[in-house]
Design goal:
The protein has helices at residues 55-70, 78-88, 96-117, 121-125, 147-159, 193-207, 223-233, 250-259, 272-281, 297-310, 323-334, 350-353, 382-388, and strands at residues 3-20, 25-38, 43-48, 131-137, 164-168, 212-216, 238-242, 264-266, 287-288, 342-345, 367-369. The chain is an alpha/beta fold.
């Protein structure tokens, strides 16, 4: 059996109600699916992160740079394929768009391998558990959403069964390194530091002390601001602060981690075991957050988790995209001994609600159970691909 074809499928849909984090204005949901076909007719699907840039750029990397290295390869040779691509493009692709594209290929290979041997991916990886606690990823900035509406949104998530919820912080233009002055719609939903602290206070009072409260700053703060805010909100029993400072500023993240009792989580915007090794060994983080569609695929995230395990750090993957992304991250985190939770986007998202035929959701205790279906255990809906493909020439 060998790889016969590799295809990139760029999908996009508009959002009726845009959502915002500390700097991004999201009015579209975008993703690039990777479809790998063998000479025997078997198919594996993956997702390549297309965040922050053109879907066509990621599509082109997959079609023009990665595909020629994959045709004719044994799909079981995933380690060889990963190293082959990484070393071939070492001079221009040790992070960013190339690693995102590689991630999609790697996930598709794991899906394919699982289908070939008729086993779910998490069992092939080690099968530590088949049940993972999920946190509700919500609490974004939205036009017209005040403290009352935010509190109601977070309470609704708890009422659905979530035992942990996450909200956004950091949309503050007065911070020294704020990107709000240079990004589209940077003047929408802005807050002061004091208003953000009040938002955290109101949410904690609304959901009570028995629910874990997570915060995500999306790299918004400088060190002094981060320390000031962290010390002001420590009394609200914060489970973690995610990506408080710029990913590149590991010294600042380490200084913050040493200055607060709140655990520091990150960094989804880091790539491969090499960047995560530095974050871990420098004690810039307390909780490790790779994403299999972004950080190098399942193959690479297993290595990241192993480094984290040697320092007794838990792993909570970033997983904010399609249902395929969620499924792949679930299989990853279910296979490792230090997997703690999974992110579950509860904002309206056709690619989570429609892309696969299965329903991935929490049970009454706030956990997601994995099935024993082969591969990633999901069935991609081809009609949804046709509905959202940005150009029919990619079908």
């Amino acid at each position: 059996m060998f790889i016969k074809n590799v295809r990139a499928l760029p999908l996009s849909c508009s959002m009726e109600n845009p959502i915002m984090d500390s700097f991004c204005y999201t009015d579209q949901r975008n993703l690039v699916l990777v479809k790998i076909e063998t000479d025997e007719g078997l198919v594996g699907y993956g997702e390549a992160a297309g965040y922050g840039g053109s879907l066509l750029a990621t599509t082109t990397v997959i079609e023009k740079e990665l595909k020629p290295l994959l045709i004719g390869e044994d799909p079981f040779s995933r380690e060889k394929i990963w190293e082959k691509i990484y070393k071939k493009y070492y001079q221009h692709g040790r992070g960013g768009i190339l690693i995102g594209a590689m991630s999609g290929v790697d996930i598709a290979l794991w899906d394919l391998i699982g289908k070939i041997v008729n086993q779910p991916v998490y069992k092939l990886l080690g099968s530590y558990t088949n049940r993972i606690r999920a946190y509700a990823s919500c609490g974004f900035y939205v036009e017209g959403k005040g403290l009352k509406e935010l509190a109601e949104e977070m309470k609704e998530a708890v009422d659905k069964g979530f035992t942990a919820v996450k909200m956004k912080v950091g949309r503050t233009p007065s911070i020294s390194n704020s990107r709000l002055s240079i990004v589209p719609h940077g003047d929408c939903c802005n807050t002061s530091i004091e208003e953000d602290i009040e938002r955290v206070k109101v949410v904690r009072e609304t959901i009570g002390n028995d629910v874990d409260l997570l915060l995500d700053a999306n790299n918004a703060w400088d060190l002094n601001t981060a320390i000031k805010i962290a010390r002001a909100i420590e009394k609200y029993n914060i489970y973690y602060i995610e990506e408080p400072v710029l990913t590149e500023d590991r010294e600042a993240s380490a200084a913050l981690a040493a200055a607060t009792m709140i655990p520091i989580a990150g960094y989804e915007t880091a790539y491969t075991r090499y960047e995560f090794k530095d974050l871990i060994t420098m004690k810039a983080i307390d909780i490790v957050q790779p994403d299999v569609v972004w950080s190098g695929g399942i193959t690479e995230c297993i290595k990241i988790a192993a480094i984290a395990s040697s320092y007794h750090f838990p792993v909570i993957p970033h997983s904010f995209s399609s249902a395929l992304c969620l499924a792949a991250n679930l299989h990853f985190v279910a296979s490792i001994p230090n997997g703690e939770m999974i992110e579950l986007d509860i904002n309206k998202n056709p690619f989570r609600e429609e892309l696969i035929k299965e329903n991935i959701n929490i049970d009454s205790q706030g956990y997601i159970s994995l099935s024993d279906k082969p591969g990633l255990g999901v069935t991609v809906n081809e009609e949804v691909i046709k509905k959202y493909i940005i150009d029919e020439k990619y079908l």
